[in-house]
Amino acid sequence: MSIVRPFRALRPTSANVARIASVPYDVVNVEEARELAAANPLSFLHISRAEIDLPAGTDVYSDAVYAKALESFDRIRAAAPLVVEDEPAVYFYRLRMGAHTQTGLAACFSLDEYDRGLIKKHEKTRRDKEDDRTRHITTIRAQSGPVFLTYRASAAIDAVAARVTAGAPLFDITTPDSIRHVVWKVTGADLQQVIAGFAALPALYIADGHHRAASAGRTRRDLAAKGIRSEEADWMLAVAFPDNQTQILPYNRAVKDLAGHTPESFLAEVRSRFAVTDGTPTPPRKGQASMYLSGKWHAVELRKGSAAGGSVIAGLDVSLLQEGLLAAVLKVEDPRTDKRIDFVGGIRGTAELEKLVNSGKAAVAFSMCPVGVDDLMSIADAGEIMPPKSTWFEPKLRDGLLTHLI
Fold it and tell me: Are residues 363 and 400 in the same domain?
């Protein structure tokens, strides 16, 4: 079963929600966050990326950053103001980006289930990033950035969502990136039915936010080690979307040099390993990557260049590219640590890849097909780990709309 727990959310009012809502802390760098929040003292980025209000060059893991996060949290709670719900509830949260719409449930989910593997992972986490978010949560005593979960779609949950979202929303805003965010509060009989619907699910899957989930678990342990008992710390804030609405975009690659090759010798080496033809910026199907080199797009047939086995991971396009070309030809042995490779989220489009190569910041770039949600869940079910930078989820949830106090 999958336990859903209502919580008393800390939230904006409808009058100030547009100023509070901010992009997730980990999709912008310090300069981008500073620019986004510069004219808006209520932006949640002042809390999630508190270094933007400290001198340039401040160590992002310094004591001053976490102290500033707490100071900004207290300031914004009072100034906005942010309000605490009178009663525990859960929320349906709808995202609309262009023609794509997805509706998920925002609630608290069990860290006991996470520890037992009933909330399944598909990525490794980095200790330094865990340290950062654990200290952030512990300092402000709140989870402000929700984990993005997915699950195999349920007709019972869909029915409650359809009924609730036919009513008046709590929030309805369109952010500067043209994504519409609509939130409805769920109480009463609808709440009981959605809890029952989730209880019938055998498992949930982390789509995006592995570091947030790991940090929520570590926060619970850290507080307990300090003798601080908080029932709320047993739960993590997340939004769970059905798999048939979850959208994954490609995670593209750009490599800074050709490992000693000229463009001509590199292309010849690739041709010796793969079928290569003239191509388009976006590969038309799985098993093929588009390669941008010297101002031209080429189609690379990945499956002809690898002797990969039958596992789901080995058959992913990102695995085939890594094994047969990035490692074998460009000498990018470990994409997690090699500074010669950059990863470009699909939301930036293939024009970003062309820009990197044309400007000389990269020597070659690869446009990929997106990984399927079914592949993600199959890998998580098998207890395996996806290759790094395999998935880019869009649209993104916003921080600050619903905060879980611990």
Answer: no
